[in-house]
Specification:
Elements: H1 2-12, H2 15-20, H3 22-33, H4 43-49, H5 54-82, H6 84-103, H7 108-125, H8 128-139, H9 146-174, H10 179-188, H11 191-195, H12 212-226, H13 228-248, H14 251-258, H15 262-310, H16 322-343, H17 349-378, H18 380-401
Length: 409
Amino acid sequence: MLSTLAWRRSVALTRRELVAENIPKVMILRLLFMSLGFAIPTIVVFWQSHGLSMFQIMLLQAIFAVTVLVAEVPSGYIADLYGRKHTLVFGSFFLIAGDLQYACSYDFKTFLAGEIFIGIGIALISGADEALFYDSLKEIGEELNFKRLWGRTVSFEMGMGALNFAIGGLIASSISPRAPFIVGVVLYAIYPFVASTLVEPERGKPLVEDGHFRELARIACRALQENRGIRWIFLVSGSIFAFTQVGFWLYQPYFKECGIPLSWYGFIMAISSSSAAGFVLLAHRIEGHLGERKLSMLLAASIGASFFLFGTFVTLWSPIFILLQQFVRAVNRVVFSEHLNREIASETRATVVSLKSMSDKLFYTALLLPVGELVDEVGVVEANRCLGVAVSCIGLIVLLRRPWRNKMN
């Protein structure tokens, strides 16, 4: 009955109208995609309640990061070959399987299966929805509105993420840390039904070229060998990404040391997430006022200070130090992306930007296991103090080696 009604409706609507409906549908899909946020505020507590050490938790995240990194290589090809619509539906099944696996898991091996499922799902969906969004606007002649509409979508997504953090923390504290995964399964189950109603927009014939990976390697080597500025951006951005992301996984054990109730975790994460959105809007203004040299010094000092503060004060109000890391994360995301684009030629821009994303993940993956081992050995408070020393030393070395140029000051 429903399929008959949908068929009659599709006949009544023009092709342009059907494609235009992709825009609000993709917005809905992006909101559903944020359902993983329900479990995030208490997931470390969940892992630890099942006997996992911080080293094992960091190992899970390292394998997850590698899974996403490896799966991203063929995911774009799959989307271009079989269509973005089918890729989104396929990816959503992996997200459902991942959350369902977590809802039924009790040990490291079964948690690992869930991480791999979710990693593959994220890799398949990431980029495919944005590409379909843009191509839909292009087909109906509205591609000039992409920046405004996608920006609105991202803002809705960030707001939903913050809301999910708050709700997820309450669900975990009042029912069980496992309950947010069950909520995720229910909401993710809606995703394939919405995705299946999308209309594949027109696009050019997919390009399948021999030697693609050789060309990728050639561009990477040339960019890094010939441009010290690009090497510096890769090093600084990757280091900042790694330390702030690893620091994120230390929040929940730190909250526990501070005696913060589990029901507060979601609200703290929601506030910190919202603050990042505000810092993103202020990033360019801050850089314009300080200049690149002083801003780089401020970032190094801020992230080092945040870890030192976490390692010195253990009180109910200590989570306010998260704002320092959110500030650094936001500025890194916006300002250094602009600097990178300023350094590279347009014909290799997309490739180098993708390589930077891969580089960030590699820095992050390399840092996870040593930090996990450190936390198990000395505790989360002392580990934060050690990270403060490490960040300060690395920051000083990198700043001294920076190829400063007058036109960028």
